[in-house]
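User: tokens in, sequence out, please.
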């Protein structure tokens, strides 16, 4: 692929070569999967005889002893669980949320002052930009003025 990429003068010339290679690889993979024999099922292992060792006999004895000691735990009565009313019957619901924004005189004044500050900043930026456009070096750089 790297050789085909190196021979191609442009990426547009490499694309048909790449697609051709992908088609050939895909068809070869498909033929291999189609004509390959089915794998044989592995034979199940057969055990003729269980060999007991001293260790396994001790383990079996301990296991029987532990099984004799194990019992079920007594059923404990559960206290009824009280849920808040806003949860509902089937799914838990969140409590209704009160609006965070309250239109108080303080909030209204905050909005007005912030709008005035943004407007003042925009006016300063506009006057600075106009002043820069008046400088002949900036006009030459932006090619606004003829030579």
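Assistant: Sequence out:
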């Amino acid at each position: 692929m790297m050789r085909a990429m190196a021979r191609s003068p442009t990426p547009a010339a490499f694309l048909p070569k790449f697609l051709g290679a992908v088609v050939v690889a895909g068809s070869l993979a498909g033929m291999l999967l189609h004509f390959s024999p089915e794998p044989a099922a592995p034979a199940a292992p057969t055990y003729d005889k269980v060999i007991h060792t001293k260790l396994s006999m001790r383990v079996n004895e301990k296991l029987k002893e532990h099984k004799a000691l194990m019992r079920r735990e007594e059923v404990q009565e559960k206290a009824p669980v009280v849920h808040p009313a806003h949860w509902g019957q089937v799914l838990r619901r969140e409590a209704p949320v009160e609006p965070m924004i309250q239109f108080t005189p303080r909030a209204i004044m905050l909005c007005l002052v912030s709008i005035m500050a943004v407007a003042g900043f925009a006016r300063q930026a506009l006057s600075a930009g106009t002043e820069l456009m008046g400088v002949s070096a900036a006009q030459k750089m932006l090619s606004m003025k003829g030579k």
